[in-house]
Amino acid sequence: MDPEHLQPETSNHITPSVGEGNRPRPNPAEFRGGPGAIANRRQTLILVIDDDLEVRENTVRILEKAGFCVVSGATAAEALSLTRLHRPALVLLDVVLPDGSGLDAAQTLKQDPALAGVFIILLSGVRISPEEQAEGLSKGLADGYISRPFSQAEFLARIDAFLRIRAKQEALRESEKHFRLIAETITEVFWIADIHIRTMLYISPGYERMWGRSVASLYENPRSFIDAIHVDDRERVFADMEVKKDMQPFDHEYRIVRPDGDIRWIWDRGFPILEKTGQVNKYVGIAQDVTERKLAKVYSEVSREILQILNDPEDSQDSIRRVIVALKTRTGFDAVGIRLQDGDDFPYFAQEGFSEDFLQMENSLVERTADGGLRQNKDGDIRLECTCGLVISGKIDLVNPLFTQGGSCWTNDSSQLLDIPPGDDPRLNPRNQCVHQGYASLALIPIRNRDKVVGLIQLNDRRKGRLNLVTIELLEGIASHIGSALMRKRAEDILRESEGALRTLLAEKEILIKEVHHRVKNNLAVIMGLLDLQGNKLIADKAARCAMVDISARIRSMSLVHEQLYQSKDFSRIDFQGYLEALTAYLRSSYHCSCDIHFSIAAVGVEMGLDIAVPCGLLINELVTNAIKYAFPADRLLSGTIGCEIDVSAECDGAAYTLTVADNGVGLPADLDWTNTKTLGLLLVKMLGEHQLQGKIELDCTSGTMFRLRFKNK
């Protein structure tokens, strides 16, 4: 550089000072050009490259007097080596150097990523046109220009200005660095797009993990993410995006279908960025994978629905079929089945979606011998095959990521089961039909009754990535409900079967009892018939014939009890009102009365069992018979308008029965002690009332004759 361009002026111009270039200077290694360099000049390092020694030393001296730390050099090679060594805040680089162009050196420095924060100012002894400066700046060869001559104050002001610009750029780079660090490490997808979301300005790497597609493909076609949206959600999301022409924030939840077929739930939020002009020219947003939250909600709803199904009053087979339909419909899996223990095997109790070929191969789990017998292990347990058998038998390896603490087995890529070396495979005779039939996602959840595995839930899907640990734990909860409900349902089924058998036995018993009463009644009728035949032959012997009639009446009183029971719906009790009406009607027709006797029966609502109805019937038969025969003699008819009446009643207060037989006839003889009489009728009354029924008999002869018997209800 020509030294004449450093014009010696008064105090504020640069003046050559040859001797000062040799004074001791601070160690440049102690200085760096950080973002806060302008705040403290003594911590700011500046590199000066100029082939003119006098100009270089004067420039160094001015900067050092201003408080800067300065290193210097004379060639382009030194510019490169010193910049890489010291990483200065500013490089003041002469345009013309002995070993090359300052522009070339600047270009080399700018191309080095390690020197991205270095600010390069080109120095020139001649005025550089605005066009040349613009070209250099636009190509990134320099960050600024200083043309000589200039005053010392102007020079330092420009240096401070460049340092401020450099500090702001450095802060911006640091901010961008932190932004990228956050954006590229978070699991969510951060994005920036134009206001119409037709140009993608930035998309974080999480897009590739979440969408399963490259970031480059989205930059190339910013609306390609719409093609990944599930067909059932696409129209809704697209319509909502079109409505957002008022530049308001938006909030979407939708499903995407990854290239591998996995379906993920996305929560996507966008916010307009308002510029200083008041205009919106871009959107920023964040997309979050909420599949686990969505699945948790779905499986919670499934769990509630299944609990309701299991609590419905129906048999276990219908309940399990409805559970299968609910699981398949709500989870969207291709095939769902439930295995339950049946003897030594665990066949499918119900299933939806499995092919006939699959069921034929997989239905039975027991290992069989060549002759069809069942193989047992050394403990005597039946050996169960394949992965299902491993889960049911509980012989799982908790260290293996395929298994959970709850004893379940699950995978989102079943093909890895084929990679297990035979010597390391814990399964017995693995069939791998799930893999061969194209099921990628697979879950086997044990169903327990207390600590015993009684079956399992199986969910298969041809898509990968359909499961996660949260869904497996939720399914384990569902399996627990099913296990408890199954045991309850089976107990209810057994109870229903027992009740059915009991009802059958009761029906058979009723038929038998009915037949017994019928046969007893018929047998008593035969006896009465024989007595009637015998009585007809004793026409001459009136006493014998009367005895026959009395015996027949007694038998009839017993026969009526069996007849009432035969006709009753309750074979253990009879309606005593109906019984008394039938008995008195029979007695009236059996004995020829000297007058027209009116009978009054009062026993409505009174019921008696067979054990007390028969003795009560016999007792009433004797008393009514006596009243008919002796209460109304022909020679002592009642005077006036008083009719002949016999009242028969029965009452029960819950604790005791009261039977009353009364007439308004002539009464008993005054000297008769009925308790010591030798007549058969009154003897039977005493025996039946006081001994068999354990009751108390009262006699009232105030007006006619009234017998009252009271005995406890057994």
Q: How would you describe this protein?
A:
The chain is α+β, with helices and mostly antiparallel strands and 714 residues long. α10 packs parallel to α15, α15 (469-536) packs antiparallel against α16 and α18 (610-631) packs antiparallel against α19 (680-692). It is rod-shaped.
The gross shape turns out to be rod-shaped
Provide a count of the helices.
19
Distance between the termini: 138 Å
Q: Structural class of the secondary elements?
A: alpha+beta
Range of strand content: 15-25%
Task: Going across the biggest sheet, name each strand in turn.
Answer: 2-1-3-6-7
Looking at CATH, which topology of the largest domain would you report?
A: Rossmann fold
Unreliable stretches: 1-26, 29-39
Q: For the CA atoms, what is the radius of gyration?
A: 57 Å
